[in-house]
What does this fold into?
Amino acid sequence: MTFDDIGSWSEIKLEIIRKYATAYSAILTRQRGLHHVYVDAFAGAGVHMTRSTGEYVAGSPLNALLVQPPFKEYFLIDLAPDKVASLRGIVGDRPDVHILAGDCNTLLLEEVFPQVRWKDYRRGLCLLDPYGLDLDWRVMGTAGGMGSIEMFLNFPVMDMNRNVLWRDPGRVDPIDVERLTRFWGDDSWRQVMYSTTGNLFGWEEKSGDNDTIARAFQKRLKEVAGFKHVPEPLPMRNSKGNIVYYLFFASQNTTGDKIVNDIFGKYR
It folds into this structure.
């Protein structure tokens, strides 16, 4: 199969997640009776190719499998059959690794999250790294309400700008509007990004920028999803300096918040 090629910003993301996963697993391994798991909702083929050198590099699921001390279980999900097959071929028949084929929005809510409940002394680190606006707010809202899940999130602002957040919202395809509304959880993103006060006729015009919508989503993760700690997200930029996405972290745990703020600070 053809592996996804990734830019330097994605390599940085992989490094950040690997560093935090290592610290997370070390801390939870010391907590007697806790069962901690790693969840990768858009796991991919397990391997990427770098644009800069053309070399193969391990993806997030393989990095997680190499973390020491190890997680107790791993849940790796992808929608594409060829990527699922690649993962199965790389991982093999490990009993602690569950590779699931299908829509993560359904699989997380129905099969994975019920196995990471607080009352069962289970905890989870969940990576939500969608290719675009392919994620349902219910996943993030459920994770926040469970209390047992910490998550990294790729906030796909480039997809938002390219397909939805146009200066003239009347020209946007309704299907793309629905994609953003599903990701956001409702249509309050319109009030964040558009205003009718800048003209005489009451038309909606774009008034917000990337930082505006990222700050609004940070607030939403706290106030609506219920995460206690959502540090300032890390803008991930391409070689031209344009923001491709923001990397969010959300947790109920003060220690996790401190660790991520320290890691993010090294890359800002």
Remarks:
- The first strand starts at residue 5 and ends at 6.
- The chain has ten helices and twelve strands.
- The mean pLDDT is 93.
